[in-house]
Amino acid sequence: MRKIMRFIGKWLLILFFSSLLYTIICIWLMPPITITQVSNSFSYGLKRDYISWNKISNNVKLAAIASEDQAFPDHSGFDWDAIEKSLKPKKKGKKTKIPLGGGASTITQQTAKNVFLWQGGSITKFVRKVPELYFTKLIEWVWGKERILEVYLNVIEMGPGIFGIQAAANHYFNKDASKLTRSEAAMIIACLPNPKKFTVKPMSRRVGWRYPQILKQMNNLAGDEDVQALLR
């Protein structure tokens, strides 16, 4: 038993220090590849073009915060209010496809999942939650908010085989991410729950319904001091 515990302890230490080293390296370098990108490349190819923070339009950053995580500048990785709300049973007669506890992932959690872990549901989703907790706190401590949002907007899938805002801007609007208007940014961000199903072009019903809501939320958040401090 002692040998087994030493063996487990040794590998836990190796995993901890290797993950910490990789996270520190990614302060300056974008992740070279992710599990999601590899798994998608076989069926859809891989379109991506990593860009720096200053080359991403503030419209995109604001749209992501408005749509995905309005408490992003303030929380420490987890939005406990949203998690508590998501765990409450839904009202009778109110239809929803979101399970209890779903729909409360922060931008930090999504970044941790996309950079270090894997997608998927059912049993693998619950297995993923433990390392997701670890990596969420790790990147909050090591990267900080600006770097988390920068990596997030570079690695998430925004269409079949299209990863990151630069590739999406080129594909959908034939322009750089720095040139995206508010409406264009909102359209791209509106596809994020399922970018293979909720298409930007041709515009799916979901994107057509969602992006005006994101625009409204962007207008509401535009004057928030914490958001503005992050976007400067």
Summarize the structure.
The chain is mostly helical and 232 residues long. The chain has helices spanning 2-25, 35-44, 58-68, 80-87, 107-116, 122-142, 145-155, 165-173, 182-189, 205-221, 225-231, and strands at 47-48, 162-163.
Which regions contain 5 or more consecutive residues with pLDDT less than 50? 98-102
Number of strands: 2
The biggest beta sheet is recorded as: 2 strands, parallel
Q: What structural category arises from helix and sheet content?
A: mainly alpha
Order of SSEs, N→C? HHEHHHHHEHHHH
Strand order of the largest sheet: 1-2
Could you tell me the radius of gyration in angstroms?
Answer: 18 Å
Structure notes:
- It is a single chain.
- Helix content is 59%, strand content 2%.
- The protein has a two-stranded parallel sheet with strand order 1-2.
- It has 232 residues and is an all-alpha fold.
- Residues 98-102 have low confidence and may be disordered.
- The protein has helices at residues 2-25, 35-44, 58-68, 80-87, 107-116, 122-142, 145-155, 165-173, 182-189, 205-221, 225-231, and strands at 47-48, 162-163.
- The longest helix is centred in the first third of the chain and has 24 residues, at 2-25.
